[in-house]
Amino acid sequence: MISSSNKRYADVLLKYAWLLIVAAVIAGAAGYLFRSRQAPTYESEVRVFIGNSISSPDTSLAQLDTGARLAQTYAQLITYELLQHTIELLQLPLTADELRGIVSTAVVSETPILIIKVVYEDPEQAALIANQIAELLIADSPSNLTSQELQRMLAIQGQIDNLESEIASQRTEATQLLEQVNLANEDEDTETALQLTEDYNRLLEQINTSRTILAQLSDTYLQLSNRTNRLEIIERARAVPQPTGIKAPIIGVAGAIVGLIFAAAAVIYFEYANTSLRTTEEVETVLQVPVLGRISHANWINKNKKTYLVVDTHTQSRLAEDYRNLRINLLASTRTASPSICIVTSPSPREGKSVTVVNLAAAMALADLDVLLIDADLRRPVLHEVLGVSNLAGLTTALFSENNRDKQQIDVPVKDLVQKTRIPKLWVLTAGYTTERSTEVFGSDRMTKLLDSVCEKYAFDVILIDTPPVLAVSDAAALAVATSASVMLVINAGRTHWNLALKAKKQLEQLNVNLVGAVLNRTRSDQDGTSTSYYH
């Protein structure tokens, strides 16, 4: 079983599958082209041993540990000057910074072996550069002998050679003397035997003295040659004909995978980071009220108020059909009252409530219902412009007339306020002059008495009231309480944030207002998973 949250993610990814494919193709192609246009590079490495443990007959752990630590230090001794010297010796077409970029060092774990690696466009040159750097590192190392020490070593070596030759000669001579002593003893020549024996013993003393001096010279020589931080190349770099790096097709595949992952992450982030309500399911989940209609987005509706009335001008459009569906659902929700009075409002401005209410009223009138449309948005009235009627006298004329300021009655005849429109059976009560004092009268008996007068004069089936947004002013809530009217909330798909819609609902619920449902306005096919195509 797939969990609901995972299913939501899967649905989102499926909806934007085309975007994921495009992102993967672009990223893969970019990776492939980038790698294929790069010149091939070749890698070569030289290994340098630090210390004398490799040649010592009795290697200790301390020697190995010291060499391993020194290897880390020598890795840092490949300085700018050493690289510049390498460039001059090999006549490389590079700067020291460029050469530094193609040279890297590493130390074999727990060993005194330093690896100098070079990656270059020419395999032969890569090997030459690596070997040259290693040689210069050895030459510049503080472990190297000075010229005086080198001369001393050469002198000692000469002395050792002379002593070894002299000792060999003395041993030969001693052997001959010993033979002569034996012959003299056989001939019983005592005097000669004693003399030869003295000579033999004296020669043995000379041999022992020479051997002592030889041991001292050898020890001095070893001390000079076998220093702890001595550097030695144990494996020279060689040209490797195979290019390094990952091949272009693999880079392309990896780029496609990375692009796909990033695109999927971006889609999920923006899909769920967006707190606006976009689908009927989201509206019903957040507000816990039914969605009475889903109104499609129409490009022809603009700031020109005359484009608002699409039910009459675009009768065969999907948008007109959406308003007709809204009409059916709203009537089914409010058919208990006669006439049915419904307030149409929204959480915030510019969510399309006025367009919704005028088209809903027209759709009802075209369904042979007697409909009264009241413009109760006394701050920004627009219905008179949409329907093309006069706004000289309207709601404010009755509610704020001179004779009506101090008494709860309606002196202005209703017949002078309600106007016919070009749509049969659709009547309108415009706002009249604008005012900022609407809330105080909407919460009083004046509006109730006005509606009573209207109902006595006309037998309307439905009364629709356009009010200001709920969160902007309290007109809609005050009017709903005073008239016991139902309220329908208009939600702008992709624009109304869920917290604002929920705040508007709670504000209405605190006054026990009957919120019959919501309308999801200006939806697109990709927002609700449906198509805007229509068989007409």
Describe this structure in words.
52% of the residues lie in helices and 13% in strands. An eight-stranded mixed beta sheet has the order 5-12-11-6-10-7-9-8, with helices on both faces. A four-stranded antiparallel beta sheet has the order 2-3-1-4. Strand 11, helix 19 and strand 12 form a beta-alpha-beta unit. It is rod-shaped and about 175 Å long. The two termini are 41 Å apart.
Record keyword descriptors for this entry.
four-stranded antiparallel sheet; 12 strands; alpha/beta; 20 helices; eight-stranded mixed sheet; 536 residues; 13% strand; 52% helix
Summary?
Helix content is 52%, strand content 13%. An eight-stranded mixed beta sheet has the order 5-12-11-6-10-7-9-8, sandwiched between helices. A four-stranded antiparallel beta sheet has the order 2-3-1-4.
Give the SSE map.
Layout: H1 4-15, H2 17-36, E1 42-50, H3 61-75, H4 80-90, H5 96-102, E2 103-107, E3 113-120, H6 123-139, H7 147-186, H8 190-225, E4 231-235, H9 248-273, H10 280-287, E5 291-296, H11 310-313, H12 318-334, E6 340-345, H13 353-366, E7 371-375, H14 383-387, H15 395-399, E8 419-420, E9 426-429, H16 438-442, H17 445-457, E10 462-466, H18 475-483, E11 486-492, H19 498-509, E12 514-523, H20 525-528
Helix pairs in contact: 2-9, 4-5, 4-6, 7-8, 12-13
